UniProtKB/TrEMBL annotation:
Keywords: Signal
UniProt-listed InterPro entries: Bact_Kbp
Protein name: Peptidoglycan-binding protein
Signal peptide: 1-17
Length: 258
């Protein structure tokens, strides 16, 4: 009896590992993908918004600028009541692919820092870095988190259409749970929680009998969830895709089914 009980106890952890584990719900995966993305990505409506932000002047003397725990000194309007700041550098400037209007600028994520003490130069402690911090890098307050209840609401909005203009992580093909930049924003009527259909333009082929160029019909290829809006730009998350999506694929307001 004791031997049987000992065998059972020894094999219990292995047996539990073989049992099917609960599958995470799609909305949980969606929230995780959104929060991870927003930690490292930010859009500003104008390059001036970044140029006027507080900036890093220097690090502690004799140390490599940018190491975790490193003290850095900054100038600008930094509030003790706002302890956490993102460190950013000017990245890609977005223009509308059709009108060429300036839509905003991408702030490249460099890391994060925590307020330590105020003074003529404010002291901060670097907490996370993606690359070396440099003098002149800008400090921005943390973005508010996404409210899941907002995304779960099915809003009614006017018809909006536009294009995917960027994939912030730098790949060429877009799949499920990838985030993309859209050339429409709040002024165009997009709101957080809105669903969009992605349409791939039909390829142009040559008619084998007439020799004339013929364009194949456009086809719906996926669904986007708008999860962060700015004045002229938005971020969307791919919820479904029947084929790889790409920059310059068109999107339009989808019929809400949530």
């Amino acid at each position: 009896m004791r031997k049987s009980l000992l065998v059972l106890l020894l094999w219990a952890p292995f047996a539990m590992a073989l049992l099917p584990q609960p599958v995470q719900r799609q909305d949980q995966l969606t929230q995780q993908a959104i929060q991870r993305f927003l930690l490292h990505n930010r859009i500003l409506d104008s390059p001036r918004d970044l140029d006027n932000a507080p900036y890093i002047v220097a690090a502690e003397a004799g140390r490599v600028l940018g190491a975790n725990g490193e003290r850095v000194y900054a100038r600008g309007d930094l509030e003790p009541s706002q302890p956490n700041y993102g460190i950013f550098r000017r990245g890609k400037v977005y223009t509308d692919p059709v009108t060429k209007e300036l839509l905003g600028v991408n702030a490249d994520d460099i890391g994060t820092a925590r307020f330590v003490v105020a003074g003529d130069l404010t002291t901060l402690a670097v907490q996370r870095v993606t690359q070396e911090v440099r003098p002149g890098d800008r400090l921005l307050r943390a973005q508010p988190p996404i409210d899941p209840t907002t995304l779960a609401t099915a809003p009614t909005v006017p018809f909006v259409e536009g294009h995917i203009i960027d994939i912030p992580k730098g790949v060429t093909q877009i799949g499920v749970l990838d985030a993309v930049t859209l050339n429409k924003g709040r002024r165009d009527g997009l709101i957080e929680g809105q669903l969009l259909s992605v349409i791939k333009t039909g390829a142009t082929v040559r008619d084998s009998l007439t020799g004339a160029p013929t364009q194949l019909p456009d086809e719906r290829a996926g669904t986007l969830l708008v999860f962060r809006t700015y004045e002229k730009l938005s971020y969307g998350l791919v919820l479904s895709a029947s084929r790889p999506l790409a920059v310059m694929d068109r999107f339009e307001t989808a019929h809400q089914t949530q």
